[in-house]
């Protein structure tokens, strides 16, 4: 099932930028993706690996954001070189780019096991190719293995480039793919993170896109700049009405009189166990957010 860990704001941070790395963990994002792929020039890859490994070696506070490293693809050798340096440093997760089929997940798991035997790190998968959105379910269900798949991340810029779909306001050309990936992720029990918004100057449109992603069911939004963090956190923050409803139903099936029941009627509304479990996750996410000061 989806995690109770909040992932409202997931900020990409270039691994080649020492100043950005230094500030990344204190910006207020729920998660940061330290990027070794698109944001790093080929000549800077080796230095960026070492820089990220050094950052991961520093003990993090309990309220620090989740730290995920986006690797390079395995093909060509850059991803293998990344694994050799990053995997022993044990980030909170590894983001795998250009995942097209479930076989790509299997290839990563084999490479990781050979590179650092005994080290297990959760993995996230980028969904950014035409092949991936044609069959996201097979990827989302590739959960068996020592490196648990925990999240899918939409890469709509790459997808637009590959398909020719235009990225217009409202994202009508993309919505069928987005919802297919969302449904696949939920079928696999995964968190699903929306893609980035490219125009830093259009704050209103960014906020609208966050709310659209929330309405669609996404757990959060990936970001390209720290100035987007506050709006994403606010958009995906459980509101008081949702929390009140969650608190009302979360423990219903734990009461002795309801043990063994699968469905209840509460104030004229049907409540199933799945609703209670979702309510518990919502409350748990809120409690983590509250413990960090929002």
From TrEMBL:
Which residue numbers delimit the HpcH/HpaI aldolase/citrate lyase domain? 8-226
Keyword annotations for this protein, in alphabetical order, are:
Lyase, Magnesium, Metal-binding
Residues where substrate binds: 70, 128
Gene Ontology BP annotations: oxaloacetate metabolic process
Q: Which residues bind Mg(2+)?
A: 128, 158
Q: Which domain of life is it from?
A: Bacteria
Concerning InterPro entries, the annotation shows: Aldolase/citrate-lyase_domain (IPR005000), Citrate_lyase_beta/mcl1/mcl2 (IPR011206), Pyrv/PenolPyrv_kinase-like_dom (IPR015813), Pyrv_kinase-like_dom_sf (IPR040442)
Q: What cofactor requirement does the entry state?
A: Mg(2+)
Q: Does the keyword Magnesium apply?
A: yes
Pfam families registered for this protein in UniProt: HpcH_HpaI
Q: Where are the transmembrane segments?
A: none
Q: Name one GO molecular function term.
A: lyase activity
Q: Which family does it belong to?
A: Belongs to the HpcH/HpaI aldolase family.
In Swiss-Prot or TrEMBL terms, this protein is called Citrate lyase subunit beta / citryl-CoA lyase
């Amino acid at each position: 099932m989806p995690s109770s860990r909040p992932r409202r704001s997931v900020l990409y941070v270039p691994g080649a930028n020492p100043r950005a790395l230094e500030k990344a963990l204190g910006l207020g994002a729920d998660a940061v993706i330290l990027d070794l792929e698109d944001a790093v020039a080929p000549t800077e890859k080796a230095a960026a690996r070492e820089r990220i490994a050094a950052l991961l070696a520093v003990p993090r506070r309990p309220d620090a954001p989740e730290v995920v490293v986006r690797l390079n693809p395995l093909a060509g050798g850059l991803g293998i070189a990344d694994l050799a340096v990053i995997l022993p440093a044990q980030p909170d997760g590894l983001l795998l780019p250009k995942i097209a089929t479930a076989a790509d997940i299997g290839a990563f798991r084999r490479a990781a096991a050979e590179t650092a035997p005994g080290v297990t790190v959760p993995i996230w998968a980028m969904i950014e190719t035409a092949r991936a959105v044609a069959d996201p379910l097979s990827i989302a269900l590739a959960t068996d293995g020592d490196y648990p798949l925990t999240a899918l991340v939409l890469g709509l810029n790459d997808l637009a480039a590959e398909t020719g779909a235009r990225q217009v306001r409202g994202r009508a050309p993309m919505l069928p793919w987005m919802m297919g990936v969302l449904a696949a992720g939920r079928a696999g029990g995964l968190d699903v993170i929306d893609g980035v918004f490219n125009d830093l100057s259009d704050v209103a449109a960014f906020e609208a896109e966050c709310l659209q992603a929330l309405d669609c069911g996404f757990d959060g939004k990936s970001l390209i700049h720290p100035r987007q963090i506050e709006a994403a956190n606010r958009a995906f923050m459980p509101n008081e009405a949702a929390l009140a409803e969650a608190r009302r139903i979360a423990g219903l099936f734990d009461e002795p009189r309801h043990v063994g029941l699968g469905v209840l009627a509460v104030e004229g509304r049907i409540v199933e166990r799945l609703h209670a479990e979702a309510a518990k996750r919502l409350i748990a996410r809120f409690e983590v957010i509250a413990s960090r000061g929002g």
